[in-house]
Structures are given as C-alpha cells and as structure tokens.
Design goal:
Catalytic activity: 4-aminobutanoate + 2-oxoglutarate = succinate semialdehyde + L-glutamate
Strand order of the largest sheet: 5-11-10-9-8-6-7
Keywords: Aminotransferase, Pyridoxal phosphate, Transferase
Number of strands: 16
Bound molecules: pyridoxal-5'-phosphate
Strand content: 5-15%
GO molecular function: 4-aminobutyrate:2-oxoglutarate transaminase activity; pyridoxal phosphate binding
Radius of gyration: 24 Å
GO biological process, one term: gamma-aminobutyric acid catabolic process
Shape: globular
Helix content: 25-40%
Family: Belongs to the class-III pyridoxal-phosphate-dependent aminotransferase family.
Largest sheet: 7 strands, mixed
Oligomer: single chain
Number of helices: 16
C-alpha cells in the first residue's frame, strides 16, 4: 500500500512524497551505528552553521515539465543532450540539496559526479566570489604559461601546496582530469627518453618528431587496468576500459591492459582470498611488461586509480599498490596514481593513498573534481626540461585556486574529516544491513569514508533504483555494470545518511 516517505532531518516528521513505505524500516535505518555511546542521533545537526533545507520535497516526477522543455531548447543548440537528467536551479540549491528547474528539491549524494566539495552555495565559497579584492582574478583569465598574475605563486602555495601529498611539493595545474593525466604521462615520456638517450635530443630525434616517426616519437606504452577510467583524450581513452560508449569508433593506442583485482567484501573477512586475487593480477602485470619489452614498446608508466570509480567501485588493498610501486621502480617506469575521484577527503583521508603507508610517494598524483582545479603533483626528477614542453593556453584556472583555498580552510575549520569518517561509517553499515535484508537485490557493499557503493542484481535493476530514488527525492549515481555509487559532499552528515537509507529501503521494498 502506498504510504509516505518522511524526512527526519529537522527532528520532526514531515511528509515529503507519496511512496510505498514500511514504517518499521525507518526506525531500523536510524539504528546504524559503530559505537552507540559515541553516536550522534541521526537527526542531530553536527554542522549547525550550514544553512540548508530540512529534507527533500518533490512536486513532479524528474525530469519535470520545465526540465523537459529546457531539454528541447538545449538540444536545438548542442545536439548532445542524451545524458542530461534535469536542469538545475543553482540559486535555490543549498548545502546538500539540489533544486531542479521544476522546484523539486533532492538530497544530492552524487554532487555532479563527485565534484562539489562542500555543498551548494557554501557561504565561504560565495564570499570569495563576492570579495572585491578578487574581482580582477575572475575578470581576467591569463595564459598561465606566459603571464601569470603577481599573486599566483602565493595562491598556489596557499591552496594546492598546503594539501600536497607527503613528499610531493611540485604541482602543475591543468584544465580537467584527462588533461592532467595526459600531461603527467608526457612528463614521464620526456623523463624516460632523456634517461634512455643520456642527453638532449639528437638531430635524428628533431627531424623525425614532426613526422610521427621514431626515434623522435618513441614507441612507449603505458600499462593500465581492466575497468579503469582516466579520461577521454586519446591517450587517456587508451587507458580507460570501463564503458563501450567512451571508446567505440575512436582510434586508440594499443597499450597493455592488466586485470584489476576483483575483491570480496568486507575486505577483512576475505584476506586470504583477496591476497590470492591480487597476486594473480600482479603476475599478469609482470607478463604484460615482458610482452611489451619483447615487442620493443616498453612500459614506461603504470597508471592506476586509488579506487576504480567509473568502472564500478573496485577496491584494491595497500599491498597491491605497494607491489605496483615496486614493479614500476624495478622496470624504471613511473607510478602514476589517479586520485581525480578519490582526492580531497572523499575517502576520509585527504588523499586516499595516505591510508596505505607507501614506502615513498607515488611519482605523480593526479587530481580534479572536488579539488575544483585540476592538475598533478610530481617528484622533482620528473620536472620537464626545456621550454614549451608542458603547456597549453590556460594551464589551469586561477579563480578555482582561490575557491579551493576557501574549501580547504573550511575543511579544517569544521573538521570535515571527522564528518566524512562518521557519515561514511553510517552509510556503509546501512548498506550492509540493507544488503542483509535484501540479499536477492544487493551485494558487495563496500566503501572508504563516504566513497561507498553496493552492487545490484543487474544493470536494469541498478538504473531502476537510481531513477526511483531520484523520484523519491534522493540523487545517487551508478557505476560499472551494476553498482549504486554514493559520492556526497564533505558536509554530508549522519542525518542525511538516514534520509538516503530510508529512501533506498523504500525503493527496494517497492521493486
Ligand atoms: C579517476 C578519474 N580519472 C580521470 C577522470 C577524467 O576527468 P575529467 O572528466 O575531468 O576529464 C575521471 C572522471 O570521471 C576519473 O574519475
């Protein structure tokens, strides 16, 4: 029987939207806890200064009539609207809540593919935009490689350098995630070729490099993993193996692909099985490297995501990453860690790899999304030698660096690390409990911080759940073939987790 889904976030029950509802399940959703004595009540506002709505409010199905109308107008112009879900009223969106063009208000646990760090219209972010001292930064976009502003070195230091991964103090900003990965790899090729040659380019190098010929354009390869995603430029696509739609019809580079571990969860209950699985994949990494060497196309870089995200939230253990780092050192290749989706505290540490205790930092750490500006940190030895070798018109976006500084300050001020850890614990436990109650639908609940996911029976069911949750007022995402993925902002609190879990449970009940 259709009942109502209620929002509990203001400590009062408020009718939000008609949905099949199991009253017992609501109380169960509120009992997710690691340690009952320390647990804040799910209704408690642990960031009281964050002004936001007290719950979802749905007035139409999504997309509503206004969004559908806007879709037609956009299609008239771009002819590329098939992925557009609905249009956003950014002025009305607040905190963890996104408001659409039809006035529907949804709890956003996806945040524009994990890219809005501290919620919509955060006052600290708005203050940067409103500050007259920043006017010239917003008004004048420089060619950073030629003429950065006199304030730029300090801006980089205050923002990016202040959160640099341990041992990596050099940073290069870029335009997007793909562009960052692409340029980190370019620095690798230059470094590798300089080592190989033992000096500056030869005359033959110079003469062949504009003709797509060796030795000026060496035959190197980069090793990536099955299921990975690193972006959509041609080199990045050659390293991305998560979705046919990304790659079909595009000529890519024939580079080696190793299997990525398919682990069993929870990780601590399957240590032996998971170690065997990781060793199987590492053995294949070795074989691929040997094969490339014989082909005369050596592996000069190994690239891996800290958690495979687009490919379906696949985790590996610190052991696996340490071994990859060892292998890359052994063969004289670079070790590139893609933290585009995991960086900026999403996993409960500022960088996911901080939790692994690597003996030394990765050679490159790529970032974007929640960091607002894209780019990569790198070790000194990879510094490009010579002018104009890592360059494009904008090479970054200074206003985004200013916004990032405000975000970092807010993370520190509000101790958002604790919030992410606490909410992540609630979320994962909730998913585990729901998976125990709906084993015919959910499996493999997993996560670090709020970077969580759970698998569904098949793609159809996954998409159905995402759509039903959206119509019920909660926006989540999907990844891989059949995972529900959760990518909330860093201000997502246990009270928001409770709303999400209620909504998920009501959706599962109604399937
Ligand atoms: C791990 C990872 N790397 C790279 C990218 C590419 O980033 P962008 O879309 O900004 O090019 C993404 C995007 O989702 C990503 O998740």
């Amino acid at each position: 029987m259709a009942r109502y889904l209620y929002s509990l976030s203001a400590g009062i029950f408020r009718r939000v939207r008609e949905l099949p509802f199991n009253p017992e399940s609501t109380t169960r959703c509120l009992s997710f806890t690691a340690d009952k004595s320390k647990e804040p009540r799910a209704t408690e506002n642990i960031l009281p200064h964050i002004v936001e709505y007290d719950g979802p409010l749905m007035t139409t199905a999504v997309p509503g009539p206004k969004s559908r109308e806007l879709l037609k107008s956009l299609d008239d112009v771009t002819k590329n609207v098939e992925t557009v879900q609905y249009f956003v009223d950014f002025e009305q969106s607040l905190g963890n809540y996104i408001v659409d063009a039809d006035g529907n208000r949804l709890l956003d646990a996806f945040m524009h593919i994990s890219s809005i760090p501290i919620g919509y219209n955060h006052p600290a972010v708005l203050d940067v935009v409103k500050n007259p001292a920043n006017l010239s930064v917003f008004a004048n976009r420089p060619a950073l490689g030629f003429k950065p502003s006199k304030e730029y070195p300090a801006q980089l230091t205050n923002a990016l350098v202040s959160v640099a991964p341990r041992g990596l103090k050099n940073v290069q900003t870029m335009m997007c995630g793909a562009c960052s990965v692409e340029h980190a790899l370019k620095q690798t090729y230059m470094w590798y070729r300089a080592k190989e040659r033992g000096g500056p380019p030869t005359q033959e190098d110079l003469e062949t490099c504009l003709l797509n010929k060796q030795p000026g354009n060496p035959k190197y390869s980069v090793l990536s993993f099955d299921g990975s995603f690193h972006g959509r430029t041609v080199a990045c696509l050659s390293l991305s193996h998560s979705k046919i739609a990304h790659r079909i019809d595009i000529p890519t580079l024939d580079w080696p692909i190793a299997p990525f571990p398919r682990l069993q969860y929870p990780l601590d209950q399957f240590e032996q099985e998971n170690r065997a699985e990781e060793d199987r994949c590492l053995a294949e990494v070795y074989s691929q490297i040997e094969r490339q060497k014989k082909k005369g196309e050596p592996v000069v870089s190994i690239i891996v995501e800290a958690i495979q995200a687009e490919g379906g939230d696949n985790h590996a253990t610190p052991y696996f990453f340490k071994q990859l780092q060892n292998i890359s050192k052994e063969i004289g290749a670079s070790f590139v860690l893609d933290e585009v989706q995991t960086g900026c505290l999403a996993t409960g540490t500022f960088w996911a790899h901080e939790a692994w205790n690597l003996p030394e930092p990765p050679d490159f750490v790529c970032f974007s999304k929640k960091m607002l500006t894209a780019g990569y940190y790198f070790k000194e030895e990879f510094r490009p030698v010579g002018a104009n070798r890592v360059f494009n018109t904008w090479m970054g976006d200074p206003p985004k660096v200013l916004l990032l500084e405000a975000v970092i300050n807010q993370i520190r001020k509000d101790n958002l690390q604790d919030v992410v850890k606490m909410s992540g614990q609630y979320l994962l436990r909730g998913l585990e409990e729901l998976q125990a109650r709906y084993p015919h639908i959910l499996s493999r609940a997993r996560g670090v911080g709020t970077f969580c996911a759970v698998d569904c029976t098949d793609t159809d069911t996954t998409l159905k759940i995402v759509a039903a949750m959206r119509n019920g007022g909660v926006q989540i995402g999907n990844s891989g073939a059949r995972s529900l993925r959760f990518r909330p902002a860093l201000i997502f609190q246990p009270k928001h987790v409770a709303i999400l879990l209620e909504n998920l449970e009501a959706t599962l009940e109604a399937l």
